[in-house]
Amino acid sequence: MLKFSGQLPNQSSKPLRVTHSGVAANSLSEWSGFRRVLLGKGPPALGSVTGGLAVLSCTAALAKSLRLQRHWRRSSRLKPLRAGAERKAQAQPKELPMTPACIRKAWVFPPGAGDIAALALREEAIEDPVLGEVRVQVQAIGLNFADVFTGLALYGPIASGEVGSEAGGFVPGLEFSGVVTSIGIDDRYPTAKRAHGGQLCELTPEVWKLARKAATGFKVGDRVMGVLRFGAYASIVNAPAHQIRHIPDSWSFEEGAAFLVQAMTPSYALHELGAMRPGHTVLVQSAAGGCGLQAIEICLKLGVKVVGTVGSASKVPVLLERFPSLKPEQFLVRGSGRDFEAQLRAALLAVGSPHGFDIVLDAVLGDFFQPGFACLAPGGRYVVYGAASMTPQQDSLGVLGWAKLGWQWLQRPWVDPLSLPGVNKSVMGFNLIHCFNNAELLSVLLEDLLNLNLPAPRVGHTFRFEDAVNALRTFKTGMTTGKVVLKIEDST
Ligand SMILES: NC(=O)c1ccc[n+]([C@@H]2O[C@H](COP(=O)([O-])OP(=O)(O)OC[C@H]3O[C@@H](n4cnc5c(N)ncnc54)[C@H](OP(=O)(O)O)[C@@H]3O)[C@@H](O)[C@H]2O)c1
Description:
GroES-like_sf; 3 domains; 492 residues; Enoyl reductase (ER) domain-containing protein; ER; binds NADP nicotinamide-adenine-dinucleotide phosphate; Quinone Oxidoreductase, Chain A, domain 1; Rossmann fold; 29% helix; oxidoreductase activity; alpha/beta; seven-stranded mixed beta sheet
């Protein structure tokens, strides 16, 4: 039997009773070590707290299983109370074993680096997951354009150093797949801006409630895929459980890491903003890319006509192979300006929709916006979710890069909001990154997406985890098809 005693922080004036059943008369939440013992599984612990003094007894095995020793060793206020037989038997307090720190590999951009080449692999300690978080041994990581833009320091909070600087850097990555290795039990809320092992996003207590409920749906050994508000380029992550789902049995880890962001993006654009219905005709820009392929899958699932565009002829065979039910006339290699508009009108005739597109999905922008907008049907919705045509091709912007970006910015397409009611068309935009602040919406979007039962995504390019810099360079050329993933070969 071990005994512990200590001063309860902020509890000195509040007597607190603890019963055999482990239910405290008032909250012990500020002292999670005790709370874990009291509310944990196993034989009941017996304790009492009066006038700020807490005394707790439990078996050594229970204390060990609940990691009380570790808490005791960390807390300067909590000391072992050796009494009676134990005091005689233990002249010196025994060195209690500590859980070794968990070390992971993570790719890190130094604060405000603005250079893809600055991405560095480092080993770092990762804190234990908290209640509501699931620890995942990562097997594969999906690349997204957000990783490129954070690397170039074009993503505001990172460029300003608001995010990542505390931790000496910023770990990119929005999605991953892997195996659950532990479920958090520590019921403290994590502090804001956890750069190590978790996402760079402060979640509210309401969100943690949702995460804690979701955590009960996972167990050690589960194959999962998940989304993070960055932090996924790592061999181990702690993720809030409501941001994780099981990988379908027949899918590989690479397919799991390739799915959620790139399918949720067009799903949100088509359903929430586009109000897509059977009979509609949809234009998908960058149709052979990760989001583009998923957009077409969703359209076909719901019996919607689709036209896809690509920037290079080499991508068309990929589309025809993936979608054998579609005709070559439904895919076009974008020409410029008026040529592009003529191409779009020909494709509309080919699919029997001369009235125009009901929805346009565009993450390319540049010169391709106006022709697409012109081909929008009355009542149509033009959904903008990126600007890939502005992607700098070098590792860092430099003076010339900034000048080019500035020129592209000056030439960006314009829409007069006053004209929209007259032409009876809408222009909309979104960024899914904001869903992390709206956990209920994120959960609903994930559920809706999984209910579509889409086929496994097409993984076009797989790089070793150690080749992350090359993977990012290849991805941002715009010549890739399907999803680009990093595979962790030795994830032990
Ligand atoms: N708003 C959101 O929440 C959200 C979420 C995820 C992704 N996105 C955006 O969606 C777009 C597609 O994402 P993804 O991950 O599926 O990527 P992707 O489509 O696999 O790759 C991007 C594509 O952009 C096209 N592109 C056009 N001009 C380019 C240029 N100058 N440099 C590079 N690429 C160029 C290329 O296809 P073609 O040349 O064949 O058109 C390229 O394959 C990206 O712009 C991304 O930022 C937005």
